[in-house]
Specification:
- The protein is an all-alpha fold.
- The chain contains 8 helices and no strands.
- Keywords: Membrane, Transmembrane, Transmembrane helix.
Length: 216
């Protein structure tokens, strides 16, 4: 194989121009679409699913999924995780404003800052689930699964009387499912399984503490 061919072939952590363009397009266009639809979802989704449009787990899951679908590698994934959160947030605000509901000034809501902090973690994690070795693929699922588990428990504990408990229960089920699939897919040794489970549960506990204690 020629040296030029080697340079054009992406490594696990790098991109070609084509792969970078496609990944960016998938994330940006997908996030703009989902963010805009979120504004309508708050009004038109059935009661049991309506919290999807108001939950951290919803946008976390979509951000993770879009980076994964775009096939971004870890370095680009870190950047696209931020892009996904910002595009979701700004599209939601723009569509809400067109519908007569003011959300926030551009790039000034809490989600703007959350996206800057959480976006790189989710983006890298999504890339690792596709390109990493078995243990890292399992660990890549844990940030998403931790948010879903932590928020699901928080929702059932604190807001189940004003929202449908079905959605919060569904978040918990999805969290368990994602972690289980990642572990079985990787055929991990017992020590690696314990590490993945530990990271997941610590992450979920941290998220719950932040929501239930710090933000109260």
């Amino acid at each position: 194989m020629s040296r030029s061919a080697d340079l054009e072939k992406p490594r696990w952590y790098s991109e070609t121009w084509k792969s970078a363009f496609l990944a960016t397009a998938v994330v940006l266009l997908g996030a703009l679409l989902v963010g805009g639809l979120t504004s309508f979802g708050q009004q038109y989704l059935p009661d049991w699913l309506r919290s999807l449009s108001n939950s951290a787990g919803g946008w976390t899951m979509f951000s993770f999924l879009l980076v994964w679908l775009g096939r971004a590698r870890p370095l680009l994934g870190a950047f696209l995780g931020i892009v996904a959160f910002q595009a979701l947030n700004e599209a939601y605000g723009a569509v809400s404003l067109l519908r007569g509901y003011f959300y926030a000034e551009p790039f000034s809501s809490n989600w703007t800052y959350i996206g800057l902090a959480a976006g790189p973690i989710l983006g890298v994690s999504a890339a690792l689930t596709r390109y990493g070795p078995p243990l890292w693929r399992a660990l890549g699922v844990t940030p998403l699964a931790a948010v879903l588990l932590g928020e699901g428990i928080y929702g059932l504990q604190f807001v189940a009387d004003t929202t449908s408990p079905i959605y919060w229960s569904l978040e918990i089920v999805l969290s368990l499912l994602f972690v289980t699939l990642a572990i079985f897919r990787g055929r991990l040794r017992l020590r690696s399984v314990a590490l993945a489970l530990g990271v997941w549960l610590v992450g979920a506990s941290t998220f719950w503490f932040f929501y239930a204690v710090v933000l109260q």
